[in-house]
Design brief:
Blueprint (H helix, E strand, L loop, with lengths): L8 H10 L3 E5 L16 E5 L3 E7 L6 H17 L4 E7 L3 E7 L19 H8 L8 E5 L14 E5 L13 E2 L1
Length: 176
């Protein structure tokens, strides 16, 4: 029997969030490599996204251990990129709660509210409809729900907990 190759979800979440980082040139600290030649060139610096979003499926199917594990990873991300704002939405068939956090708010205390059926559309529509949508969305869910007809404009990472025999499919985004 062939074994199933697995990649740690923490690594995939970190890769997904870091892929949204931009790079730009800055004159605040010129590139020291060219200073001996009398050339002052800008330095390439990473710039984390201003906002990222995390949606928690509150239909009652997300175990506390999964939420705690993802919360720890999000805290680490905010420590690495203190200029980023994390928008957290709690959603079942509708958005049932919302909060925003920065590195100043650590440790995170996420308290899901809700408990109805699962519809992924309202939370994704609420984020996509903002004047400045987040750079990306991570959605913690069992993936048992209704998907919107159109995918959102921002990248979505579906964090599916538990140990399904095969990874469920989603019509858009990446399933982990």
């Amino acid at each position: 029997a062939l074994g199933v190759a697995t990649v740690d979800w923490r690594a995939l979440l970190a890769e997904f969030l870091t892929a949204q980082n931009l790079q730009d040139y800055s004159w605040r600290r010129p590139n020291p490599r060219y200073a001996p030649l009398g050339l002052y060139l800008p330095h390439l610096v990473p710039a984390a996204p201003g906002r990222i979003a995390f949606v928690i499926d509150t239909s009652g199917s997300v175990p506390a251990a999964a939420l705690a594990a993802v919360t720890a990873e999000l805290e680490e991300y905010l420590r690495l990129y203190p200029g980023t704002t994390l928008d957290v939405l709690y959603a079942d068939a509708a958005v049932t709660g919302r909060a925003s956090y920065t590195a100043d708010d650590l440790p995170l205390r996420l308290e899901p509210v809700g408990g109805g059926g699962t519809d992924f559309g309202p939370a994704l529509a609420a984020l996509a409809g903002e004047d400045l949508p987040p750079a990306c969305v991570s959605y913690l869910t069992d993936l048992d729900g209704t998907f919107p007809a159109e995918p959102p404009s921002m990248p979505v990472l579906w964090l599916v907990f538990g140990r399904p025999l095969r990874l469920p499919a989603a019509p858009f985004g990446r399933v982990v």
